[in-house]
Specification:
The complex is a heterodimer of chains A (about 150) and B (about 425). Helix content of chain A is about 5%, strand content about 35%. By secondary structure, chain A is mainly beta. In chain A, strand 1 (about 5) and strand 2 form a beta hairpin. Chain A is extended, with a radius of gyration of 20 Å. Chain B has two domains: about 5-120 and about 215-230, Thiolase/Chalcone synthase (Peroxisomal Thiolase, Chain A, domain 1, 3-Layer(aba) Sandwich); about 240-425, Peroxisomal Thiolase, Chain A, domain 1, CATH 3.40.47.10. Classes of the chains: A mainly beta (about 150), B alpha/beta (about 425). The interface between A and B is large, with 40 and 44 residues.
Chain lengths: ~150, ~425
């Protein structure tokens, strides 16, 4: 709907709605196995030996094809932040903790929400990846985290 | 032999949110007219080509503003190029224009940049900006840039014993430096205490650690040596330019896939005080550093014959989208050895009266960050510092860096994916 919201200077208020149908391409496997099999899948390049999680279907080192591998669920927090704000559509309880976690055997860091009390989170904290199987009809995958990390009590 | 390239002029509009008095094309015409007013010898006929700098067409629902601005100012049918590279767009556009003149394909180039971010509410504007990050993983979890920079900052604090006072000092410096600038929107006389007490957005970053969305436009005019000498008595040379890139997801940087340095597998040393073994101890750039900046600086310094940036550069305009990213940049641009920036900030190194003043303009935090205009604004102030007439654009001379011969200008895109470094000299 277009309307005049002010006359001097003449200001027009207008809506622009977009519905995208974006493919996740080969990375779909990550989200499908997460939801259907409860597995966290990375990729490994046999030639370079690098293990990527988040997955790279093509190896950025040698441009070879990588293979899917199930990743261990334990890891270490390498960096974290406690967020006190969020995009409108996230609707998470504030504050929430986001961390870069190095899963065992990974060459890259996986970002994720750390569940629980933010004040307990530290650099180097050990965590376990948990999978939250989304309810039917909820939007899982890209804009909702359907995996998260839980601190392993020392 | 490639040609020498000079900055011969520029203009700046008032950064403000909203700039509802002008639409995009009028907003752009403002600094362009100012540049022509400041250069009586320059006529529109002298301009061979334009480069338009803007980040997101989502902001005004106009999908070819490059052309509408060009046509509005009457430069058709001359060639025009649009450059987009996130937050680095401004200097990326100047860097692109520099190539055309260097190659002898054009003599005079007009680079104009703008962004109007107040056309949508801040929350949606932040979504547009965050859509320039990795949309599969990072965006889905953080959803806004402050979160990513906070992660990187936290890692820097942890590894290099920097702390919130160091970043707060940068906020104090930049907001105070902007106080004497009529073009600036966010100048303020604040203290370290004020920053530390301000609202946390994503720990450890507070609201005063962040730049703000705004509207604005700026332009720069570049010329070949022959033409520059006809247009002005005081050309400022772009003696070096470089650009580097890095992985979209900071979490992918530990693999080093994006850091395949031209000099080999190891990160280049660009500061003579830097100990390469210290650099080798961390998986540089990892998430705490900007490898793209080191690569851009390496290229720029090689061309400008800079072997000791801290001694050979007298002022810098750095892309301070966050106080933390300015802090990290001191190291990656080679001013300070890796991991030693905290002490340098405590000693007042980057302040106007310090060893190497950084952002005497006030930077993004003090002036504002209308993305496509920002790097051009930074270049405008560095240019006038070297000309020695910076106070002409300020209400007093408190931010003048007297006697400066050489400046570095740096522009940085989302989490360090694109970084440009330019070296300007008299």
């Amino acid at each position: 709907m277009t309307k005049i919201s002010r006359t001097d200077p003449l200001t027009i208020t207008k809506d622009y709605r977009i519905t995208y149908q974006s493919t996740l391409g080969e990375v779909s496997r990550f989200f499908l196995d997460l939801a259907n099999e409860g597995k966290i899948m990375g990729t490994r390049c046999e030639k370079c030996g690098k293990t990527y999680i988040p997955p790279f279907p093509d190896c950025p080192e040698c441009l070879g094809k990588t293979s899917w591998v199930e990743m261990p669920k334990n890891g270490v927090i390498e960096a974290f932040t406690i967020c006190y704000t969020q995009p409108r559509h996230f609707k998470r309880k504030l504050p929430y903790t986001v961390a870069y976690v190095r899963l065992e055997g990974a060459n890259t860091l996986l970002p994720g929400i750390v569940d629980g009390d933010p004040s307990k989170v530290e650099q180097g904290s050990k965590v376990e990846l948990k999978i939250r199987v989304p309810e039917r009809g909820t939007r899982w995958g890209v804009y909702e985290a359907d995996y998260y990390f839980e601190l392993i009590e020392r | 032999m490639s040609k020498r390239v000079a900055i011969v002029g520029g203009g700046l509009g008032k950064f403000d949110k909203p700039r509802e008095d002008k639409r995009v094309r009028e907003l752009v015409a403002e600094p362009v007219k100012m540049a022509f007013d400041l250069m009586p010898n320059l006529s529109k006929d002298d301009i061979d080509m334009g480069v338009a700098s803007y980040f997101a067409t989502h902001f005004d629902q106009e999908h070819n503003p490059a052309s509408s601005c060009w046509d509005y100012m009457g430069f058709t049918p001359k060639p025009l190029l649009h450059i987009e590279g996130g937050g680095a767009t401004g200097c990326l556009a100047i860097w692109a224009a520099w190539h055309y003149i260097k190659a002898g394909l054009a003599d005079v180039m007009l680079v104009y940049g703008f962004e109007t971010q107040s056309t949508v509410d801040s929350s949606l504007a932040n979504e547009f900006i965050a859509a320039a990050s990795d949309t599969d993983f990072d965006y889905s979890l953080g959803g806004f840039y402050t979160g990513y920079y906070a992660l990187m900052c936290a890692r820097h604090y942890h590894l290099y014993k920097t702390n919130p006072v160091h970043t707060a000092m940068i906020a104090v410096k930049n907001k105070r430096n902007a106080l004497n600038k009529p073009f600036a929107e966010f100048g303020a006389n604040i203290t370290v205490e004020d920053v530390l007490k301000s609202r946390t957005i994503a720990s450890p970053l507070k609201i005063f650690d962040c730049c703000m969305l705004t509207d604005g436009a700026a332009c720069i005019i570049l010329a070949s040596e022959e033409k520059a000498k006809k247009l002005t008595d005081s050309p400022i040379w772009i003696s070096g330019g470089g650009m580097g890139t890095d992985a979209m997801r900071p979490g992918d940087r530990p693999i080093g896939a994006a850091a395949a340095w031209q000099t080999g597998a190891k990160a280049p040393i660009i500061n003579p005080e830097e100990d390469s073994s210290a650099l080798a101890k961390v998986s540089y750039p990892d998430v705490q550093s900007f490898g793209a900046c080191r690569e851009a600086a390496r290229q720029a310094y090689r061309l400008a014959n800079i072997t000791n940036p801290l001694k050979q550069i007298q002022l810098a305009e750095l892309h301070d989208a966050y106080t933390s990213s300015e802090m990290q940049t001191y190291e990656d641009i080679g001013f300070i050895p890796h991991g030693k920036t905290g002490k340098w900030i405590e000693e007042g190194g980057p302040f106007v009266d310090g060893e190497l003043p950084c952002n005497p303009s006030g930077g993004l935090i003090g002036v504002g960050h209308p993305v496509g205009a920002t790097g051009i604004m930074s270049t405008f102030f560095a240019y006038h510092q070297l000309l020695g007439d910076e106070p002409k654009f300020c209400t007093n001379s408190s931010t003048e860096v007297q006697g400066a011969q050489r400046a570095a200008v740096h522009s940085h895109a989302g989490t360090g994916t694109y970084i440009v470094v330019l070296v300007l000299e008299k």
